[in-house]
Structure formats: C-alpha cells, structure tokens
Amino acid sequence: MKHIAIIGYGVVGGGITAVIEENKAFIERMVGDCVNVKYILDLREFPDSPYGDRVVHDIETLIDDRDISVVCETMGGSHPAYEYSVALMRSGKSVVTSNKEVVASFGDELLRCAAENGVTYMFEASVGGGIPVIRPFTTSLAGDSIGKIDGILNGTTNYILTRMKESGCSFEEALSEAQTLGYAERNPTNDVDGIDSKRKIMILAALASGKLVDNDCAYAETMTKVSAADNKAAEKWGGAVKLVASAVIDHANDKLALYVCPQFVPFSCPLAHISDVYNGVMVNSPVTGDVMFYGRGAGRFPTAGAVVDDVCAILSGAAAAETTPVFEKTSRGAVPFAELKFEYYVRTRPESKSDALEFLNSTCGKVQVIDSEDSGVLEAIVGEANLDEIRHICDNIGAVESVIRVWKNA
C-alpha cells in the first residue's frame, strides 16, 4: 500500500479524497498498488467526514512518518506552504501542489530543493485546473522554442464576461451571480484584478523560457471597468472582450514580456469563443505552430484530478522518466509593459466628433471607426501606441469612457 498525505482540506483537498475513492480501481491499476490517504493536515476538525480520524495539526507528524511518500499541498498562499514543502522534501517526500502562488513565487527554489533531495515536485494543477498543460511543456513541446502564449486562465472572470455578453448585465450583476453560484470568492480581488491569471502566465512562461520573472515584472490590469457598451462594441467590431494573459518570448534577444489585461479578441482567434468557466491556452512556436489546450480551468474535481494525476505519476515511477522543469528567478530581460505597443479600442464623448476624428487620423497609424448607437459617442480602434502615447491620445479627444487593448497575434 502506498501512503500519501494532504495539507489543506478545503475545496481541492476534499476533492482529492473523493477522486481517489471514485477512481480506486483505475488508480490501483496505474500505480500497481492501493493508495491510502494516511493524514490530513488542517487547522480544523472534520468530525462529519469519513476521513475525520486522519486529521492532524502538526507538520512534524507528516515529516516523521517514513511511510508517507507523497504529500499533496492544497492549502494556498505562499506561507507556510513554501516552508512546509521544503521541510517535507528534505525529509525525503515528494510534493505535488495546486498552489499557483507558491509556484509563481518560489518554483525555482522548490524544484531545486526536490533535485537536491532526490524527490519530485510537481504542479500540474497550478495552471488550468484539470487541463493537462504543464506536462506538455516539458514533454511534447520540449524540443520547440515557444514564442507566444495566450490564455484565458481564470474561470471566474471568464464566467463574468460571458454573462455580461449574453445578458447585457453590468459587471457588478455578473459578479454577484458568480458569487451566488460559488464561482467567485466573497473577496474576488485576485480574480478580477488579474492577479490569479498573472501567477499562472508567470509559471507557463518560466517553463517556456527558463525564466521565472519577479512579480513586479509581470503586468496585471483589472477587468472591473469592462461594461456592457464595451461588449457591444467588440461584437460590432467582430470579436469579444476577454481577460487574456499573454507571454511574448524573444529567445534570440533574451527578452520576455508578460501581461494580463482585458482585450478585444477577434472571432478568428479561438480564445474569443471560450465561454463560461472554461479555460484555454494557445501556444505558438516555429516548429509546431499553433497548439490549443482547452477544458475546465477550475473547480473542485478538475483541479483535484490534476493533483491525483501527479500523485499517480510519482507513485508509478512515470515521473522519474520525465524531464524535470528547470528555471531560474530573474528580472533580466523582462520588458516593461509601458514599452509595448498595441492597437486600442477607445470610446469617448468629444465636444466635436469631427475634430476628435481628425486628431486621431493625424496621430495614429490606423483608425477604424465603429458605429455607435449614441450619436454623441465616438468609438474607434486606433494604434499602435505604447502607454504614454495612448494617454496622450486620450487627453486630446474629449471625455474618454473606455480604453481596451486589442489582442495581438504576434
């Protein structure tokens, strides 16, 4: 019998025991033995759970038990997740996690700690929930130089934007609905301000480039200002508003740009058609071309299933034959977001539409006017411009109501 432990018995941690029970026969066939959850480390008691008698409150219990070979860390946050993971690996135990914050902050150190102690550190569930996207970066795509990654990496925000588009409701109304359904936390800041997506694109970019950039080197912009009018304009233009996380990797010049922001995505791009709580990751490379990963990016069972997949890979010995990710923490080569140029959707209420349009035509390399139902409003796609340039443009075209970037294919 193979013994494992779980740290954090919340949504994902509770899902792990359920997945193991539901797929017991299949897991046993894959691993070659029974898998037993021997301990659950949590601050709380769970008297009504069939696993209530396995709850402990001291990490030393897990560290000292030589029967434990793999620990599932699903507690979230950087601390004490980082310290617990290091201590466990130093005691000879492998660690798997769904915790994107600790991987984005300390992934390089945790991978190095695993290598130094002859154990394994895996984090498939940290990005894309149940979508198998981490492992392909180190296996199927390992021989290719990935140059661009674009992803809808947060199911909560994608659900909100989908509801806004379908019903014409406001951001606040869609968020309230998402919270009622359990898709959004009571405090949704990490989701709606792009922080969660930023951590995930940092991890994917690290796998593709070998660089785990400092948190400050990746840009995140809130999607709370997206309105029903923005969705209507995007549809007239031929696309949809999505919160997209992007990584642009210039291997030749050792440069890397990471950003998360609302973007007008054309219907010609598959990301424009991803709705509800689903996630999608597009990868572009010179050899393979465009590759798409799609599926449920969040939720108890998809995420817990990804954790269990990592556990099975370690216990079966399959993980030992795979290439271990290697990346270093650095800010070298990170391109400041303010330097990047985009086309922009702009909506403004100018005193004179003809004067505003004349200014845009004389300033921007491209101007595409979008028909507006409001005669006092000017809506257009302009560009390309960097952050300072678009601010200058907006200062000269009246009362600007919305500014949203347009997705770049390259």
| Rg measurement, Å | 23 Å
- Averaged pLDDT: 96
Counting DSSP H or I runs of 4 or more residues, the number of helices is 14
**How many extended strands?**
18
Give the overall form: elongated
- Secondary structure class reads alpha/beta
Q: Percent of residues in beta strands? A: 25-35%
Residue share in helices? 25-40%
Structure report:
By secondary structure, this protein is an alpha/beta fold. The protein is built from 14 helices and 18 strands. Strands 7, 9, 10, 11, 12, 13, 15, 16, 17 and 18 form a ten-stranded mixed β-sheet that branches. Helix 1 crosses helix 12. The longest helix has 17 residues, at 100-116. The chain starts with a strand and ends with a strand. 46% of the residues are buried. The mean pLDDT is 96.
